[in-house]
Write a structure and sequence with these properties.
The chain is of the alpha/beta class and 329 residues long. The protein has helices at 4-7, 20-31, 70-78, 92-97, 99-120, 154-173, 199-208, 228-240, 258-269, 281-284, 296-302, 310-324; strands at residues 11-15, 35-40, 61-64, 82-85, 125-131, 176-182, 184-186, 213-216, 222-227, 248-250, 254-257, 274-277.
Length: 329
Amino acid sequence: MDFTETFSGRRVLVTGGLGFIGSNLARRLLELGADITLVDSLDPDSGANEFNVNGIRDRVRIERVDIRDEARMSPLVRSQQIMFNLAGQMSHIGSMQEPLKDLEINAVSQLKLLETCRHENPEIRIVFAGTRQVYGRAKYLPVDEKHLLSPLDYNGVSKRAGEMYHIVCHRIYGMWTTVLRMTNVFGPRMRVKDDRLTFIGWWFRQLLDGNTLQVFGDGKQIRDLNYVDDVVDALLICAVHPSAAGNIYNLGGEPINLLDLASLLVEINGSGSYARVPFPADRKRIDIGDYFGDYRLIKNDLGWSPQVSLREGLARTLDFYREYREQYW
């Protein structure tokens, strides 16, 4: 889909705009001629990194604001046409360690933000970043949107609340809201300094540092991954396609087990090693087992499907961190 005419001159707000997905989205929106405001609290536990806007800082408006701050968010949403709502607490382990913070960011603050939009700018189009974590352990594969919702950690519960606040605003107030349930998103500009937000980001760092990749358990757990450019495309299409309003969509990619993924990474890198290790107890308790998403609904409704192969995406990401490792280590 050609987004150039659709986004040229549009006023777009991106919450979590200094994070991984937000900053990649901002770069794409700039190419399309949008007028962009990035909002981010720069929470040290998040994926926010000021280097993520290196080279585009003078072409976007950046506001260091917590979305929980209604007084400051009100004027920011008032004149916007589209909001990509990517702000959130994404750490599964973090949600168990600080459950009230997780609830405040992913549920309470989302309701506050939506109420601000409803009062200040009810015509704004909102696309919300959800997560496959709401499903918990899969009862069948691939997992579609009709699957039972039974999250295994507090993060899945709070993200479910956040997404439903968005959908209720559509059903009751007629606001344009769409939810994308994302799976493992990877690519340039993700947090790799630890494994707090993503296992694959940590693997990139370990591989480039010459360390052995640790694969928990038997390594047969199946996952699917999406390269960030494909996720950006999904976000864009959900903001403009008439069929998207009020809907929840799964994203998804090529299913692969973790041992094979580790092997593929080592192969692409040209060196490295991996080994199976026992599951840490705190992670085993909230592990979802096998998962890969059924994305036929968004494909049939909106025409989206992933375009970047897993191999190509991994290669691009490794190249990025080889060049910019000092900014992310």
